[in-house]
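Practice problem: predict the structure.
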Amino acid sequence: MTTPTDAHCRNCGSPLYGEHCYACGQPTKGLVRHFSSILGDFADTLFNIDGRLLRTLPALLLKPGFLTREYIEGHRVRYVSPVRLFVFLCIGTFFAAKLATPSFEIGRDDAVRVAGTDNVVIDPDGNEGFEEIDTVEGVEARLAEVRAEMATRREESKNLPGVVAVLESAEKQIEANARQRIEALRARANADGAPPAGGSSPGISLDEDDDTPDLNFNGKPWDAERNPLVVESLPDTANHWLNAQIGHIPENWKRVREDPDLLRNAFYSALPTALFVLVPVFALLLKILYVYQRRLYMEHLVAALHGHAFVCAMLLVLMAMTSIESLLGSPAWLAAPMGWLEWLALLWIPAYLWLHLKRVSGQGWFATSVNFAVLGLAEVVLLSVVATVALLAALVWL
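Answer:
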């Protein structure tokens, strides 16, 4: 190797043989240069926009386990790093989901209407007229009607990202309010016309007068001083902080009632951070399941990053398909092929993840299937917890 003419480190004076000084480590490139070259370096560092991206994405989507095995075997410079790949696909997925999810508007009748639709209207309180019905049979009949209506709404809105989840949440609230009304009517009948006593079950309910949430813990209304939420395993400082956060819920609830998009946007903003916590936990599960293989935790983390990056990429593909259908107005000639493509994409996700696990672990079909079932169940539970935490965090930190 030869030394370039007059190429010496400006910091220590040692000869330069590359982009960094071998003696002190100082890079040859600083900030005092053309701005265009700085932008190019920034784009390359941030997005890896070069041949590596073109090699990485097809392998990620079509070759289960390939990228993980390549990385573990030391073939790393050819591809985008697992962390960068997951981070940007994850953020890109939830940014696209935020754009694709319809916004909500509260009309004069206090109903939430899904923007861009003519028939998806949700009562935010889930009352559906139960308070005006004076018999248990009447409430049950009305609930049956609402269930049928919600089933129709879900079918009509299945191609709108995020709407089905909103409808399912609304249906749960409606059923809870129906049960509450039935209990109140039965209590009134048992007390010979006396008004039913207020509920004391722990949780969150709505005050009928001002639509602010009633927070109940230990069978009594929550109060930061007189009846705080106390988690025995947490120190006093943590419990104090937790109750301070709970105190934000009533005020933020009113803001959400005025602008439901606040909660949606906050939820989508919190999800990527929650998933960043989920991936290391999932890697730990892999480490426990394959402890006999004596692999390093970081190998399992690379596998988890690639697996979750693939799921994010497929969600982007599915959202792109839905957007294409919406832009073209869902013509009849496109409906059948797009429907088949969407089903194939959905079926490819579990098939890919199973093959990914088999090729990375090197196990047989039966052992892979058992571990895949265990990991799948654990993933569902973890995702439910993550989504719940993200939703609560969104409601607290609006």
